[in-house]
Amino acid sequence: MPTSRWRPWLLLAGPLLVIAGLLLYPIIRVTVLSFQRYGLKEVISGKPEFIGLDNYREAVSGSYLWKTVLPNTVVFAAVTVVGTVVLGTLVALLLQQLGPRLRALVIGSSLVAWALPAVTGTYVWVWVFDPDSGVVRRTLQSVGLLDPEGFNWFTERLSFYAIAALNVIHHGYPFIAITIFAGLSTVPEELHEAAKLDGASAWRRFWSVTMPLMRPVFAVVTILSTIWNFKVFAQIYLMPGGDGSNPEVFNLGVWSYVSSINQNKYGLGSAVAVLLTLVLLVITMIYVRALFKEDELQ
Amino acid sequence: MTRRSSPLARFGKAVAVIALLAFTLFPIYFMLSTAFNSRAASGTDALVPTHWTFEHFTKAFTDGNFGTYMVNSAIVTVATVLISCGLALLGAVAMARFQFRMRTTVLITILIVQMLPAEALVIPLFLQMKDLRMLNSLAGLVLVYVAFSLPFAIWNLRGFVAAVPRELEEAAYLDGCGWWQMFRLVLLPLVWPGLVATSAFSFVMAWEEFTFARTFLNNEERMTVGIGLQHFFGQNVNDWGGLMAASTMVTIPVVIVFVLAQRRLGTGLVSGAVK
Lengths: 298, 275
Hints:
The complex is a heterodimer. By secondary structure, chain A is mainly alpha-helical. Chain A folds into two domains: 32-61 and 265-297, no CATH class; 71-250, MetI-like fold. Chain A has 13 helices and two strands, in the order H-E-H-E-H-H-H-H-H-H-H-H-H-H-H. In chain A, helix 4 (64-97) packs across helix 10 (202-230), helix 6 packs across helix 8 and helix 10 (202-230) packs antiparallel against helix 13 (266-295). Chain B has two domains: 7-57, no CATH class; 65-274, MetI-like fold (Orthogonal Bundle), CATH 1.10.3720. Chain B contains 14 helices and no strands. In chain B, helix 4 (66-97) runs parallel beside helix 7 (138-163), helix 5 crosses helix 7 and helix 7 (138-163) runs antiparallel to helix 10 (192-208). The radius of gyration of chain B is 23 Å and the shape is globular. Chains A and B meet through helix 1, helix 4, helix 5, helix 6 and helix 7 of A and helix 1, helix 2, helix 4, helix 5 and helix 6 of B. Chain B: InterPro entries: BP-dep_ABC_trans_perm (IPR050901), MetI-like (IPR000515), MetI-like_sf (IPR035906).
């Protein structure tokens, strides 16, 4: 077979150049920035000054990171990952039970939910919960569950994130459902039939037959959605208050963005960005290990 | 599959399907009914439209710059898909077909850069684009989108290339094909489904991207749909009808792409995970 030592590198030259220039170099640059005083003055002069760990000290000092940003990021990711994976799995199992027509209908509608772009999807949910004339306010008031003066769901941290979670779960479950459904078709039917003959309940068949065979698929979708839901940005930024006016609702990504782009505190923003990257790096290491174990990366 | 389900089980299934469809389709229904409703300002009136209209759609083009945003997004998206899928296919062939030193290092790098959050890179990339005088340029945006879709695209395509039997390639060599000829005649047709799925993913990413577009573009003439939607928010009053009409138009291309690529979307990841 005509293989040359250089051919793989020739093929990889383009992709690696782009990745190095636009992903690896910036991540090094943001790390350097995080150790510098870099504000509007330094953007103009181009002469930043190294200040050691000051930006990190500013980020971790006080209670803001620990009481607001980190819980917003971590609890939100945990709730939405569990929500999307459980709902996605249930839908995949339901799809198996349906006839071809209903199955096509459910897959079709979940494709549309998946296709709803994050930006437009967020606007729809904001409109649904609009404090003045949203459909939720009108409906609750017409059945007497809400006072005439109404309620602004977006100013309270808990209700703000409940709406964001609804949005992210709605947008995220179809990917899980379709991937798991595709994976379920690789589980041999005979195993289920045999377990059924042995008198195993549906619950037992799921845990003892489906789950062990599907573990790699579950591992991949769970870790991927953990990575995605940790760095949810547009869905928070586009909600009322998420664009910078209400620091109570920031997560790590929004805090980093608002600090640097809105307030020109590039050094602090970079330090927060590095913290977010480190968290994701740990999750990714778990991901890489899970893949290595199952696949040997042949 | 044996289907001898009891009436109770059938009832349960029916309830599950109806509840799921209601949850899944409600926001889409609400978006559409607001978009076509001349009394869109109030939520419950928008829920069941009684006064149908197209005015929100036409106003988006006449009052706003929505047509420009759509054209810009289309240019950026097509360029991103072509460049990133082309580059990714080359990378995937290298990863799936060649043994070389540092192969595992490259593969792990690709897996790790996949997780880099846009919010961490937006700061240095903003400064980088500023240095290169590429802020406000669609080409700069394409470069960034290609970089962001490449790792996943290579990873996804790698599985499809690996699934093509080597014997087919060897047969092509025996028939006197050169490497590029083999690539074009044997490999390309067989990894086509993988390319469809991969292009669908990078299409959606580039079409609806928000963070970089929001940061890099500040000229009306250059804006893409993701940020163009913000223009329907007024100081005091929001144009919900216009926003939902515009959102509908932003959503339609993605729905078309997903429906076309439907059968390919889940399989790539599964073939990557289960071997």
